[in-house]
Amino acid sequence: MPKAPSQPIVETDLYSPIAELLTAQGYAVRSEVRHCDITAVRGEELVVVELKRSFSIELLIQATRRQRITEVVYVALPRPKWSRRWVGIKHLLRRLELGLILVSLDTKRPQVEIAFHPLPFARKRQRRAKTAVLREIESRSGDFNTGGSSRRKLMTAYRENALHVACCLEGGGPQTAVQLRAQGTGPKTYSILYRNVYGWFERVAPATYDLTAQGREEMGQYPEVVARWREVVAAASGSEAPEPGARRSARTSRPGRRQENAEVGAK
């Protein structure tokens, strides 16, 4: 009989389906042997199965203790709904070289699936992932986040780069990507301006960008980083760092193209 939705699952509900499966495979099954929920013997092979209603640290502790007895240790659980957490749990079990048995109790006859067997785990490091972490660390100018933070905007290397660009536009007015890169904003400058992920930039002339009102406002959300880049921009231009919200007009800070041509013609 399937388990009624209103009835809570207990560990003993998992026993009979798994015992039947092991017996059908030629194992002699015994339960509760020296703290092991299920033991199964076939020839010289010893299998241990630990039963639990849900995944927990206690289950891992019990299962890894059973690995002192035999290499063939499974954990058995009611089949869960898929979730990102469940994907991580399966990876953890494989890392610990534990097998996994899933039992479906909501069917007329309980269904047992051996999700994977306990096998040696070959740990493979992902070079691309490592490279990405090292590149992110190298691209950050400081530690502007608090470890363990959640549900808040993090200061990534990309966001910091965008703030550098914003500070250059704040201090020097509308500029092209070439002009900004000359100030050290880096190879992603054009992409940051063109993609405009945060809505901070707008094109005001061909290939020329300026800060939006949203950009000027949201710079205030990152005072520590903005203060640092304002100092860098000011040092590069030989002027004092602008006050928050201050704006330098591009027309007064540097000559426009027509003015440049007029000066050249005058010479």
Describe the protein's topology.
Layout: H1 12-24, E1 28-33, E2 36-42, E3 45-51, H2 57-66, E4 72-78, H3 84-95, E5 99-104, E6 111-116, H4 127-139, H5 157-172, E7 175-176, H6 177-181, H7 189-195, E8 201-205, E9 208-211, H8 213-218, H9 223-237, H10 250-253, H11 257-266
Parallel strand pairs: 3-4, 4-5
Antiparallel strand pairs: 1-2, 2-3, 5-6, 7-9, 8-9
3D architecture notes:
This protein is of the alpha+beta class and 267 residues long. The chain has two domains: 105 residues, Trna Endonuclease, Chain: A, domain 1 (3-Layer(aba) Sandwich), CATH 3.40.1350.10; 105 residues, Orthogonal Bundle (Arc Repressor Mutant, subunit A), CATH 1.10.10. It is 42% helix and 19% strand. The protein has eleven helices and nine strands. The strands form two sheets. It has a six-stranded mixed sheet, with helices on both faces. It has a three-stranded antiparallel sheet with strand order 7-9-8. Strand 4, helix 3 and strand 5 form a beta-alpha-beta unit. Helix 5 packs across helix 9. The protein is elongated, with a radius of gyration of 32 Å.
What is the helix tally?
11
CATH arch. level architecture of the largest domain: 3-Layer(aba) Sandwich
Beta strand %: 15-25%
Helix content: 40-55%
Query: SS-based structural class?
Result: alpha+beta
User: What is the fold-level CATH name, i.e. the topology of the largest domain?
Assistant: Trna Endonuclease, Chain: A, domain 1
* Radius of gyration over C-alpha positions, nearest whole angstrom: 32 Å
Tell me the strand order in the biggest sheet: 1-2-3-4-5-6
Any idea how many domains?
Answer: 2
Main pleated sheet = 6 strands, mixed
